[in-house]
Amino acid sequence: MSKLGIIVASTRPGRIGLPIAQWFEGDARAHGGFDEVRLIDLAEVALPFMDEPNHPRLGQYTKQHTRDWSARIAGVDALVFVMPEYNYGYNAELKNAIDFLHNEWLYKPVGFLSYGGVSAGTRAVQAIKQVVTTLKMTPLVEAVSIPFVHQMIDDEAQFQPNEVVAAASKTMLDELVRVEAALRPLRQGA
Q1: Which of 62, 83, 95, 184 has the highest Cβ tally under 10 A?
Q2: Signed CA dihedral, 148, 153, 154, 156: sign only
Q3: Does residue 190 carry a pLDDT above 80?
Q4: Which of 142, 130, 139, 131 is nearest to 100 (CA)?
Q5: 89-120: b (≥16 Cβ within 10 Å) or e
Q6: What does the DSSP 8-state code read for residue 48?
Q7: Using 50, 70 and 90 to split pLDDT, how confident is the model at 108?
């Protein structure tokens, strides 16, 4: 059974990342490439800034919130980060969530669904790729990049993708399924 975790990176009040992630969750379920799809909202996870005394590589977690976070990430085989761009980079809450763990990320593919203005969050994606590759994650080339995202939020604060965004979602999910299967033996041996 393959499991996909969709991480909502933004924790900002009034954020649009959650409705975008909810749309993508539905799209991932309809795609059918994963047996299970889990939405992981960093606002609900509510990790404090790194408060563990030991290096994450050791897996010697002293806090319950870290053990819970570890179980969530260990329980998925592939990830998609739904992420905004803040000042040409990714947000601190996402970096903090990544830095809490180590082994749980190893050999997992990661797709990026980024959003913003004219750049569609692509600068943030480029910045985070060096972080995820250090953890032996495999970032996909295929991505969902949403420019001028506010134009796709309706009056009920729901995300309404255009045809280009919808097509990019399918392409990224197709590749995520392929790369997850290819990396599975590495995860089993880790």
Answers
A1: 83
A2: negative
A3: no
A4: 131
A5: ebbebbbebbebbbbbbebbbbbbbbbbeebb
A6: P
A7: very high
> If you count DSSP H runs as helices and E runs as strands, how many of each does the chain have, helices first?
6, 6
Q: C-alpha distances in angstroms, 6 versus 142, 150, 177?
A: 16, 21, 14
- Do the strands 36-41 and 144-146 form a parallel or antiparallel pair, or are they unpaired? unpaired
**pLDDT, mean over the chain:** 96
Q: Please measure the distance between the N-terminal and C-terminal CA atoms of the chain and give it in whole angstroms.
A: 18
Task: Tell me how many domains the chain contains.
Answer: 1
User: What CATH number corresponds to the domain at position 183?
Assistant: 3.40.50.360
Instruction: Please calculate the CA angle 109-30-20 and round it to the nearest 5 degrees.
Output: 70
Tokens for 168?
A: 């990019």
Q: Which domain holds residue 164?
A: 3-189
Instruction: Classify residue 38 as exposed, middle or buried by CB count within 10 Å of its CB (0-12, 13-18, 19+).
Output: middle
- Please give the C-alpha separations between residue 132 and each of 20, 45, 137, 188, in angstroms, as whole numbers: 22, 20, 5, 19
Q: What angle do CA 19, 20, 26 make, to 5 degrees?
A: 90
